[in-house]
Amino acid sequence: GQCVTHCPTGALSERDDTMKAFRALANSDLITVVQIAPAVRAAWGETLGISREFATVKRLVAALRKIGFDYIFDTNFTADLTIIEEGNEFVKRKFNNPEPNRYPLFTSCCPGWVRFMKSQYPDMMEHFSTTKSPQQMFGAVAKSYLAEILKVDPSRIFCVSVMPCTAKKAECALPGMDSTGTGPDVDLVLTTREIDRLIVAEHIQPMNLTEEEFDQPMGISTGAGVIFGATGGVMEAALRSVYFLATGKNPDADAFANVRGMNGWRESTFHIEGKPVHIAVASGLQNARNLVEAIRKGEVRYDFVEVMACPGGCSGGGGQPIAMNKELAQVRGQSLYGLDKNSALRFSHENPSIGALYERFEGDELVHRVHELLHTDHNAWEMPLSPWLRGKDC
Ligand code: SF4
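A: This is the predicted complex of the input protein with iron/sulfur cluster.
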């Protein structure tokens, strides 16, 4: 990709893939499918001079449609799917397994965290959730389920992610992230900063945008999906569904709200089905290291741990707009919690589009397809691995 230089001396540059997006949009053989990550909606307007209230995700949908993307979907949909798969993993481990585990189940949706652990504490990888991240689940579902709905060959689908994250550019190039044998599930990752550049390059006036709806069926999501973008959000969303999966009843949607906050390492204990569930949430890699060291020394014991590499989670991600001398992760996170509060659906397992997706497959086929499309093998690649150096970026 081309480089955009921000450093006055030219010593630092940022990878910019916007030209790849323009090339795909200009190729009439390709069907361009774009997904918008949860945290992007809390930040995309910052560099365009529009308020957080005006810069809704529905206005971003309108902008992407004007740019020319064929289908615009929501990563929140696959965030819900991630929660169901990960929630099931946790329930099996905690409630159906008589042997207590030495280590907790770790979330695996942040590629910065996965890479950190693979390089620093590889012996703990077997305790990572095998559930794919929402970005990678989306790509796998787009090139299988959506391709079937559209009656097109998966190779014609060009899957673009709009992410708050630069590490996602490497995640989509990892070995194993090709579920249909037709190339990477996610073809291109654009950061929030890059999508803003695309909007400016297309001379779109954000103030003139009116709200538009996502396409279906991957445009329906819940409040549990949207809080993925804030530190603690994956844990809170997962616990809402874990409670349901373990007891058959929904908890109060805010029952796990005390996992929220900006402390880099926080912990809670909840009681589900008569059992104590000890959880911890960390963001920032120094906090992650402290937490992992404490676990290894036996100083703390948890059942389930969420870690995000960026301080404050994806809201403060490396691909988000940069405000000089201002840390915006918290205010963006609050905006996501506001969206959750106002959602008609607040439990991932109540997302009707996900029910329809699972119903598409039955019996053995369901088990096989779920494994193939929605789970990953963390041993499929070794550290050190640099997609950049190998020239194998997606
Ligand atoms: Fe990417 Fe940072 Fe979010 Fe991890 S926490 S997925 S590195 S933006």
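Residues 110, 112, 164-165, 167-168, 308-310, 313-314, 317-318 surround iron/sulfur cluster (CB under 6 Å). The CA atoms of residues 107 and 129 lie 6 Å apart.
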